[in-house]
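Q: Convert this sequence to C-alpha cells.
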Amino acid sequence: MILTESHPVSTMEAYNGFYKNINSSQNLNRIARKSTVFLNSFCVNGSSNNSVSSLLTGSHSHANGFNPENNTFNFSQENFVDLLQKEGYETCLIGRWDLSKIPQYFDDWNILVDSSVKYNPEFLNIKGKKRIEGYSTDIITDLALNWLQKRKSLKPFFLLIQYNGTSYPWMPAIRHINLFDDQLIPEPLNLFDDFGNKASPSRYQSMKIQTDLNLKQDLFFQEDKNPDQNSTLSQESLSQKNINLMTYEQFSAWSLAWRSSNEAFTRENNSEQKNTKLKFQRFVKNFLRCINGIDENIGRLEELLSETNRNVFFIYTSSTGRFLGEHGWFGSKWMYEESFRVPLIINSYLPSISQTIVETPCQIIDIAPTILEFSDSKELINCNGESLLNYISNKDVNQTDRMFVYFHHNEFPSEHMVAKHYGLRSPKYKIIHYYQFDEWELFDLINDPNENINLYSSQAHASVVKEFKELILSFRKKYSDKTNVNIMPEEWRKFYRGPEARKKQND
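A:
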C-alpha cells in the first residue's frame, strides 16, 4: 500500500482531472488502466494524521480517539495491521510516520524523523538514527525495494509506504526543477474567486495563492544557505531547513536550476494580478514535479512486483486532496471537492488486465475492511467502513445502497485557518455546517460541480435543506459523533471575523 499526502485527483488521467494533460503521473495512469479505479473516493477528515488514524482503524477520527494537538493515537485499540500480524503476516512500514515516535504492530520499520525534510533526511529504525544523502522520495523507495528483495521469510507480507513528497514544503528533486518549464499550466476559471456566494469561512482562510504564498519560503524566488539557523527555524522556514541540510553540490545545482527564472521575475514590475498568475504557475509546477518524483518511484516498485509474479494486492491512495488554484487556493482541509476527493486505485495482479471503474462512493475507512477480507483475517471491532472487495472482483459492481459519505474537520484555529465543519455528500447534493459560526452551505453537485453557488437560503431548495439536515443528524448518530458542535459566543465569533481573523492564532 502506497499512501501519499494531499494528492488531488485533478492531476490524474483516470479521474479526467483538470491537469491530466500535464504528464506528472505516467506510471500511476498506466497502473490505473489495469486496475479497479474508485471514482468517488473521499477522505473523512481534512488532516493527514487524522486520515491515517482512520485508515488503520476503519473508523472516523472522533471514534478512534486520535488527538490532533499532540499526534497521539491509542494503539491499544484494534487496527488492521495488528490483525494482519496476528494472522501471520510480516509487516513493514517505510517513510512518513506521524502518529507516534515508535510504530507499533510493524515487524520492521524505517521512518522519517522529520517528515518536512526532503533533502538528506534522517531515518529512524530499530537500530537507531541514520542520515541518508539524497532526495526523500528516492530514498524511501530504495529502502522499500531493499526490504522486498532481501526478505527471506515465506510469510505473506504487508508493506506500507508513506511518501512525504507532496507535503509542505513542495521541494522537487533537483532533476525535476525545470520539468514543465516549457508549458503554461491552465488556470482554473475560479482562480480569482471572490467567495460572494459562499459562507464566511471561505473568506477568512489563510491559503490564498495571492496573499498567503511567500515568494521566498514557499516558491524559492530567493535562496540562502545558513546552517547556523537550523535549530531555530519555524514552520514558515521549512524550505530553509531543507536548504541548510543540502550538500554544497546539491545547493549549487538547486540555485543554478532556479536562477534564470528568478532573475526574469525580479526584473519585471508586475501587477498584483500578474504576480498571482506567476505564483500560481510556480506553485502548481512544483507540486506536479513532486508528484512526478513519486510517480517515477512507483514505477520502480511496480516493476519489481511484476517481475516477481507475486500474488500482490496493490493499493494507491492519499490522505486528503488539495486545491491547485481552484478558488485561488493552495491548501486542503475542506469538504469542498478538490480537497475532499482522493484517488483510490487497487490492483490485485490477477490475470485480468482490464480496468474496472467503480462509481459507488467510498472512503478511506473502507480500506481496512477490504484488506482484512482479502487476507481472510478477522473483522475489526467498531469499524465504520465497509469492504470494497466485491467491486475489485467484479461482483455486484454497481449494486449498492450506499449513497452518502460523511466528513468532519475538527481543527480551528490552526494552519490555514479553516473553520471546523461537518457535512454529508450524496451524488447530487452536499451540505456543510460550520457549527462554531452556525453557518451552512448547500451545493448542487450536478449543476454546480465547482461549488460556486451556495443554495442554502434558496426557497426552491428548502425541502432539500430540511431533508439533509435530518440525514446529517442520523449519520452523526450512526457514527457516534458526539463532538461538541455548539455555536461559539458572539465575542469569540467577532474576533475570528474581525481585522485580525486571518492571522494564525495559537488559542
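Confidence is low (pLDDT under 50) at residues 227-236.
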